[in-house]
Design a protein that fits this description.
The complex is a heterodimer of chains A (356) and B (639). Chain A has 356 residues and is α+β, with helices and mostly antiparallel strands. Chain A has helices spanning 22-26, 64-70, 121-137, 153-158, 220-225, 264-268, 277-284, 336-340, and strands spanning 46-51, 54-59, 94-95, 103-104, 115-116, 208-210, 236-238, 245-247, 274-276, 294-299, 308-314, 317-322. Classes of the chains: A alpha+beta (356), B alpha/beta (639).
Chain lengths: 356, 639
């Protein structure tokens, strides 16, 4: 969907066009940033632009978000992640470039002479409404972007968002109700309550839980499951509009789908909608104590790739395995063994003083 | 690609329907399933053609249509079969199939009817029709167990001149698809039975007088194009005078002279004339067509594409349907000229799925043009080669957004792309693409033949040429009218016979659901882009829906809000949730239970509207509140 995706159909060899510099014809189409770069990299061309009134010089090809962050400007994001292609769908990061509509800074690129305002009244208004719309329709309790600190609440305060303006939340849907929605149809609301995506969590396997009442449809899990990382394609966005949802084909349980339980979707989910079963059960029991947990970085013991694991340990048990997005081997991606194959660590010999 | 595809067998009928479409395009028994050579007699999996088949994802939507048409729904087995043939993951196929309102991922009875309850049909009593159908067939979308017939509510079917209208679909080989009106509930039920009995029974009802020009046919056509047969028309000149199914007749009436001229003039000259004509896109965005063509022509890399946007779905709009049904060769000729101008060798006409007659006529026109050497290699004995095909939409207003339309053709969910890059740089299949509305293209042969300057003599300095207006609602003679830009809103309503019964105009919705309401004081507004802008309105697609003084405007506003909620793709937050909040807010006002005061609610509506306009990805979200915010402030609407 975004501009740096490679064309989906391979181009045939270029046909000669009269009057065109032949070098243009032999230049390959732009590649996604995930692909290998040529070994020699020339210093990027710089682009002169104005951000919040200050003239700045930024590398061409950067996103507006990157350019703003390089200036120390804090722009809220939710659906963008450093390891995946920006989708530009949550619209929290919009900035004013003087265009008819606001511009998503996460996916739009800088341009020569561009003027960007990151925090004017128009921008603040849209961000406030987007936060209100999100918070009134989705459970954001655990939501937070990758940067700067993984929380969203301070942005709700910063923009004065009051999600209750749209009324009290409507009662959650029954299991399967949202999955059965017919495209282009909905039950006519009375407006007394604010519709939301509340629904029971999908618990169909021992490894992870999908609580779509926390889902903001950022597309990160779909990207991670698909071409951006795993190439498994177990899930897609299904349905449309407010009934759009992440789903396997015909809402099959994960074990019957193409899912390989790599858990890379959990690693990229910004809202806690995708969660280790162990974490989910502890939270449900009211026994999830982040302050008592330790985080240990280690190397996965299974194969020779050497993925970095980030073990979250509570009461001397592993409760969650993540992988840092900046890990230089697999950028946060693991396989089912590294992600979930840790039970053997926790089996102690009988009679051991550390038996659990 | 290693796919895990559920071991579900498609039924014989499903498999045959899918293969009948895919075999000629992929080669028989060639699928993309990369499962290794196995016993073909057992499971038909062959590890051939994988890469080639994978490059044919654009066959996905037509393959889904093939199953839907044949059996009435898309079963897990059918999804598995398509997944094997095209090497597309089943989850993604489900994601695509579940997007479209005319495709069903749950089992449905074979005969179904989509009853329009949108603006014009609503004003013509569609709600009563729906109530009766509900008593007879059960709630919409929920057929009784074992039923052979079911019904659905539908957004605008583009049959506003014969409201209330309905689209019938009967699964089978071949499937029956007929869109018609006006119909009351008993007529709908009996047509459904006709459909179950067979094709002729239902179609005879729709087309009683053939296609050759005749007084009876002219009479029939005047029910949707009241000017049919009149002299002095440009875009509607052939309506009623030329057999829309006959290439011979088209050629005898000036057809393909423009393409001959364009081939003689060369691409450069054609583009110069289009620029000189100053023609603006008629789909609603009013972008200068010449500039679009020049940019695509200048793009260095190919292949390039021409796309005709015939996904006419703006509520209250049916002007493109008239051209598609009654002058299809003109459109094929215009797309061919566009291909010549920008250096494309392939064109697509993306047609909304609710226009079966238009599909038949355009398919026929393309086939006859190809036979006559007017498509294909060496067109008119020149070196120019070009071909085109029709792609059928499946019930999604958003697919008319240009980049969503590309996604739909490519076999993905029709979610709009972020722009830039614009289609002239990166469009269909990543190639430079021009995408033009049907009516825009219908102007092209005239521009080529008469020259851009002569073309531009009609109309005003800011709005050149003539414009088709779809007039519906409370008028005596609804239909499509061609007038030079600059005619007054009131004049066009008078051409449609004015408001019947001597009642007064309460309000007019100009530009469709994405447009804005104006009050009776705006009847003197000149219908030009600049005139509409000055009046705080927009011409949009040229829809004019007239509401008389008896209209429950709030009910109409609520239907518009419902429409945008239903048609939002769901990609971006302002539109996905904003359209829901807008509908809820209206529901509260209608129920008389505002949160706080009515003024508080109106302020909230404005805030919502502003964020949707500023922060939505595409035109749908950006315009989803225009009609509601303008309509609710009409005098007397809030009591």
């Amino acid at each position: 969907m975004s501009e740096q995706l490679p064309p989906k159909t391979a181009f045939p060899p270029p046909r000669p066009y009269p009057g065109v510099d032949p070098e243009i014809l032999t230049t390959p189409p732009a590649r996604s940033p995930g692909l290998a770069q040529a070994p020699e990299r020339r210093a990027p061309r710089m682009v002169e632009m104005t951000i919040d009134g200050a003239p700045v010089s930024v590398p061409s090809g950067s996103t507006i978000l990157e350019a703003c962050r390089a200036q120390g400007i804090d722009i809220p994001t939710l659906c963008t992640l450093s390891t995946l292609n920006p989708e530009g769908v949550c619209r929290l990061c919009v900035v004013d470039t003087g265009a008819r509509a606001l511009t998503p800074s996460c996916s739009a690129r800088v341009a020569e002479g561009m003027t960007v305002e990151t925090e004017n009244e128009r921008v603040r208004h849209s961000r406030r409404l987007v936060l209100e719309l999100l918070a009134s329709s989705v459970d954001l309790d655990l939501a937070g972007p990758e940067l700067p600190d993984g929380t969203l609440h301070k942005y709700l305060e910063r923009y004065g968002a009051d999600p209750a303006r749209f009324g009290p939340p409507s009662s959650p849907a029954a299991a399967g109700e949202r999955d059965a929605a017919e495209a282009g149809h909905h039950r006519v609301p009375d407006g007394a309550t604010a519709s939301n995506v509340g629904q029971p969590a999908k618990i169909d396997n021992d490894l992870f839980v999908r609580d779509y009442s926390k889902c903001v449809l950022c597309y990160k899990c779909v990207e991670a499951c698909g071409v951006d990382a795993q190439n498994t394609f177990a899930i897609s966005v299904a349905g449309r509009g407010f009934a759009a949802r992440i789903s396997t084909e015909f809402d099959l349980p994960l074990a019957e789908s193409a899912c390989v339980f790599c858990g890379n979707c959990i690693n990229v989910c910004p809202t806690g909608a995708l969660m280790f079963r162990s974490e989910y059960e502890l939270r449900r029991a009211g026994d999830w104590r982040e302050q008592d947990q330790t985080t240990t970085r280690t190397i996965c013991p299974y194969c020779g790739v050497g993925c970095t694991l980030e073990l979250h340990v509570q009461d001397n048990r592993i409760v969650k395995v993540l992988s840092p997005l900046d890990a230089d081997i697999t950028s946060g991606n693991l396989c089912v063994k590294g992600r979930f194959g840790f039970d053997f660590v926790q089996v102690r010999p009988k009679g051991s003083s550390r038996e659990v | 690609m290693d796919l895990r595809i559920a071991d579900l067998a498609a039924t014989t009928a499903e498999r045959r329907a899918i293969d009948a479409y895919l075999d000629p395009r992929l080669g028989p028994s060639r699928g993309g399933w990369d499962g290794g050579e196995r016993d073909i007699s057992v499971d038909g999996r062959v590890a051939r053609g994988g890469h080639e088949a994978r490059s044919h994802r654009e066959l996905l939507l037509p393959a889904l249509h093939a199953v839907q048409d044949r059996v009435g729904w898309i079963s897990p087995g059918a999804v598995s079969h398509i997944a094997r043939r095209l090497t597309v993951p089943p989850a993604e196929i489900f994601g695509v199939a579940s997007f479209y309102a005319l495709l069903s991922t749950v089992e449905r009875p074979p005969a179904s009817v989509h009853v329009c309850d949108d603006l014009a049909c609503r004003l013509a009593g569609a709600e009563r029709v729906c109530e009766e159908l509900e008593r007879e067939l059960g709630p919409a979308g929920h057929p009784r167990p074992g039923a052979e017939r079911t019904w659905h509510r539908s957004p605008c079917l583009g049959q506003c001149e014969r409201a209330p209208a309905a689209l019938f679909t009967v699964a089978g080989d071949p499937a029956i698809r007929v869109s018609t009106g006006p119909l009351d509930a008993p007529a709908i039920l009996s047509r459904l039975d006709d459909g179950l009995r067979g094709r002729d029974d239902l179609e005879a009802f729709e087309r009683p007088v053939g296609t050759a020009p005749s007084p009876e046919r002219l009479e029939q056509l005047r029910r949707f194009a009241p000017q049919a047969g009149q002299p002095g028309l440009r875009l509607l000149a052939r309506v009623g005078r030329v057999d829309p199914t006959s290439l011979t007749d088209y050629l005898a009436n000036g057809g393909y002279r423009a393409l001959g001229q364009a081939i003689a003039d060369g691409p450069q000259r054609v583009i110069e004339e289009v620029i000189a004509a100053e023609v603006l896109g008629r789909g609603g965005a009013a972008f200068p067509t010449g500039r679009k063509w020049a940019s695509a022509a200048a793009a260095p890399l190919g292949p390039k594409y021409v796309v005709c946007n015939a996904d006419e779905a703006e509520p209250g709009t049916f002007k493109d349907r008239v051209i598609l049904e009654e002058d299809p060769f003109a459109l094929v000729e215009a797309v061919t000229i566009a291909g010549l101008a920008i250096g494309a060798d392939r064109g697509y006409l993306y047609l909304r799925g609710e226009y079966p007659l238009a599909e038949e006529r355009v398919e026929n026109a393309i086939a006859l043009a190809r036979q006559a050497g007017l498509l294909g290699e060496r067109i008119m004995d020149s070196a120019f080669a070009f071909d085109m095909e029709v792609r059928r939409g499946a019930g999604a207003y958003i697919a008319g957004e240009e980049t969503a339309l590309f996604e739909s053709i490519e076999g993905d969910r029709p979610e709009p792309r972020s722009k830039p890059p614009f289609p002239v740089e990166v469009g269909l299949f990543g190639g430079p693409t021009i995408i033009n509305n049907v009516e825009t293209l219908a102007n092209i042969p005239h521009i080529v033949l008469d020259g851009g300057l002569a073309y531009a003599e009609l109309g005003t300095s800011g709005s050149r040429g003539t414009k088709l207006f779809s007039v519906s609602g409370h008028v005596a003679r609804p239909g499509v009218f061609e007038v030079p830009f600059g005619a007054r809103l009131g004049e066009v309503i008078e051409m449609a016979g004015g408001v019947p019964g001597g009642r007064a105009v309460r309000a007019v919705l100009v530009g469709g659901a994405a447009g804005r309401f104006v009050g009776p004081e705006a009847l003197s507004m000149p219908l030009t882009y600049e005139g509409a802008r000055a009046a705080g309105a927009t011409l949009g697609s040229g829809a004019i829906v007239v509401l008389d003084e008896t209209t429950d405007v709030l009910d109409i506003l609520r239907r518009i809000a419902e429409f945008f909620r239903d048609e939002s793709c769901g990609q971006c937050v302002p539109c996905r949730v904003g359209t829901v909040r807008q509908e809820e807010l209206l529901a509260r006002l209608i129920a008389g239970h505002p949160h706080g005061t009515v003024e508080d609610e109106l302020a909230l509506l404005d805030e919502l509207a502003r964020a949707m306009r500023d922060a939505s990805i595409c035109g749908l979200g950006q315009t989803a509140s225009g009609a509601v915010t303008s309509g609710i402030r009409l005098p007397g609407v809030l009591g």
